[in-house]
Amino acid sequence: MSETWTFVCPTGELLPGEMRTTFDEVTGTPIIVLNLDGDLYALEDQCSHEDFGLSGGGEFDTGAGTIECVLHGAKFDVRDGRALCAPAYEPVAKFPTKVEHGGVWTRDDRD
């Protein structure tokens, strides 16, 4: 588990409907941070169905609060990471976010 928070971007660079990617500095985990109507959510940037980044062309649907993997169409709820349709059945990891010192931060908090 990483106790070190990773800087994602200045708060003004992650507006509602936008997403940014980063890597946890300690664990090397790819993380995608999404702004859903002003609320920030962070998920592991990897589809649970296949080793493919959700940020790699995936569609962030702000109306439904989902992100879709462009590879096979699996969808995940950005609020909790749960899989919403086949071919994914397992959730993607969800991580904490915080806004501090004018920036957006996240970390891999898994044990």
Automatic annotation (TrEMBL):
Query: What Pfam families does this protein's entry cite?
Result: Rieske
- PROSITE patterns linked: RIESKE
Concerning InterPro entries, the annotation shows: Rieske_2Fe-2S (IPR017941), Rieske_2Fe-2S_sf (IPR036922)
**Full protein name:** Non-heme iron oxygenase ferredoxin subunit
Q: What keywords does the record list, in alphabetical order? A: 2Fe-2S, Iron, Iron-sulfur, Metal-binding
Enumerate the spans annotated as Rieske domain.
6-106
* One MF annotation (Gene Ontology) recorded for this entry: metal ion binding
